[in-house]
Design a protein that fits this description.
- With 409 residues, the protein is an alpha+beta fold.
- It is 18% helix and 39% strand.
- It contains six helices and 27 strands.
- Helix 1 runs antiparallel to helix 6.
- The chain starts with a helix and ends with a helix.
- 36% of the residues are buried.
- Bound molecules: 2-acetamido-2-deoxy-beta-D-glucopyranose (NAG) (8 copies).
- One 2-acetamido-2-deoxy-beta-D-glucopyranose binds next to loops.
- Required to protect lysosomal transporter MFSD1 from lysosomal proteolysis and for MFSD1 lysosomal localization.
């Protein structure tokens, strides 16, 4: 009995070990060093730097052209310099770091794809071209809704409205809401699905709100295509790893987490390093409440290599940084929203997707103190009952023996 007590105590101690969370110091600037040029235009380029003891992680969030994110790891006290005239004209090499980053990686939210899911499979790879419409995010009119910056986090909320595809002369009503959040330490985000983030990661939340669907499509669903650009061996495909998670305490009903790792990159000293990752819970909510009853699933597809620079890169901040660089990793990743039998997009005209983009090791969920308490009670209570029953039996037996002795006298 004492050994099982020791085991359960050890288990509790092992599960409770919180590790040593590291902290980075956040600094953020909107449109850094852009005065006259940016004043007349609704430009949103946010530079966030997260200083650690030995290095700085820079993030650049940009909403000119296709929304994109750049992540760069540099030596400490490296500064960022944007040549605004060139930057706004989307010219190459208009973004500089004063010291060359040891690693950099970028992501473009490239397309929203509407597909007509005639047979309710919820899979975009079974739909044919005639049953698909592509929306390019550069054709939305992007407005900054709010920006909150303090020592612990930076929140940027953007909204894209009044879609107008100038090439095809197609307009649509509805909006895309993008929330980007940068953090300084390991914690859970406050919005459902409460993703766990590290000091090295940014959370991106996408809401497709009342987006007009194609009237010739009876069963419209949406998918999101991301374009990944940057460091890492371009010949190796990104690694997609859906895994079961320990518990659903933070995301009720969802026991899975999907991780995408970029191929490793070679450091200056020759060592291989893991690079960047994406992480999400395969859940999408069809109402702003984001409760269990309003959840549906997401589905990811194998990454695909892109052989040459596309217009998507050319019309994004990543081109300003990488220019015509060759030997870059260039892959696309598609995620569709919705699952079989969920009533399609038309059910509520609202869908969300939340993911984390970060550098280093993706965080692993640990048991929280609440779960540990429940486990301890689960293990401890039977033990306690056994001890009490044992004591009770002993005590009850004793006076009986006494009585017997008394009677036999
Ligand atoms: C900038 O945004 C504001 C609202 O946030 C809008 O009223 C204004 O027309 C926009 N200006 C341009 C040049 O797009
Ligand atoms: C920073 O560098 C020092 C000395 O090289 C090392 O001891 C320390 O572990 C490093 N800190 C982090 C967070 O990497
Ligand atoms: C930024 O870069 C431009 C062009 O490379 C240079 O002229 C300028 O002095 C730099 N500014 C800073 C603050 O480093
Ligand atoms: C839908 O199902 C029908 C009948 O099973 C099949 O002929 C058709 O090709 C399917 N369509 C798609 C887009 O999968
Ligand atoms: C609806 O889809 C059809 C077929 O793909 C396409 O020709 C048409 O332009 C689409 N309409 C809109 C408004 O996107
Ligand atoms: C674009 O479409 C609108 C209606 O959808 C039409 O009134 C307009 O003439 C079109 N413009 C061009 C250049 O085709
Ligand atoms: C990069 O590519 C563009 C278009 O392909 C070209 O106009 C430009 O000169 C190239 N720049 C360099 C530095 O090669
Ligand atoms: C965060 O990035 C630093 C790089 O400086 C790395 O040493 C550390 O392991 C990363 N943390 C996590 C949790 O991945």
């Amino acid at each position: 009995m004492s050994s099982s007590l020791t085991v359960s105590l050890l288990l509790v101690v092992a599960l409770a070990d919180p590790g040593h969370p590291t902290r980075r110091t956040l600094r953020s600037r909107l449109n850094p060093d852009c005065d006259e040029t940016c004043r007349g235009r609704n430009v949103t380029t946010l530079h966030l730097s997260a200083d650690g003891p030995n290095d700085t992680l820079h993030y650049l969030w940009d909403f000119i052209g296709n929304p994109s994110v750049l992540l760069a790891l540099t030596p400490p006290s490296t500064s960022l310099n944007i040549s605004w005239e060139d930057y706004l004209a989307r010219r190459e090499n208009s973004v500089h770091f004063s010291e060359k980053p040891t690693y950099s990686f970028g992501m473009i939210i490239n397309k929203i794809i509407e597909f007509n899911d005639v047979n309710d499979t919820a899979l975009i790879d079974t739909a044919d071209i005639a049953n698909m419409n592509v929306l390019h995010l550069e054709y939305f009119n992007w407005q900054r809704v709010s920006l909150t910056q303090n020592n612990d986090f930076v929140y940027l909320n953007m909204e894209g409205n009044s879609y107008h595809d100038t090439a095809k002369n197609i307009s649509r009503y509805g909006s895309i809401k993008l929330s980007l959040r940068g953090f300084c330490t390991l914690d859970h985000a406050d919005i459902v699905p409460h993703m766990l983030h590290t000091e090295n990661s940014t959370q991106i939340d996408i809401i497709l709100d009342n987006l007009q669907t194609n009237e010739t499509f009876s069963n419209s669903r949406f998918a999101i295509e991301l374009l990944m650009v940057g460091g890492g061996d371009p010949d190796i495909l990104m690694f997609v790893d859906p895994k079961k998670s320990l518990d659903d305490e933070h995301t009720p009903g969802i026991f899975e987490i999907v991780e995408v790792r970029t191929p490793p990159y070679r450091e200056l000293n020759g060592a291989l390093n893991g690079g960047a990752y994406l992480q999400w819970r395969p859940v999408s909510y069809n109402s702003a409440l984001r409760d269990v009853t309003s959840s549906t699933e997401t589905m990811q597809y194998s990454p695909k290599r892109i052989s040459k620079y596309t217009n998507a890169v050319k019309n994004s901040m990543l081109y300003c940084y990488y220019g015509n660089a060759t030997n870059l990793l260039l892959q696309k990743l598609t995620i569709s929203l919705g699952s079989k039998g969920d009533g399609f997009y038309k059910k509520t005209n609202y869908l969300t997707w939340t993911f984390i983009i970060g550098y280093g090791t993706p965080p692993e969920e640990r048991f929280s103190s609440l779960v540990i308490m429940i486990i301890s009670i689960g293990l401890g209570l039977p033990l306690l009952i056994m001890v009490i029953t044992g004591l009770y039996l002993c005590i009850r037996r004793m006076p009986k023996q006494h009585g017997n002795v008394y009677l036999s006298r």
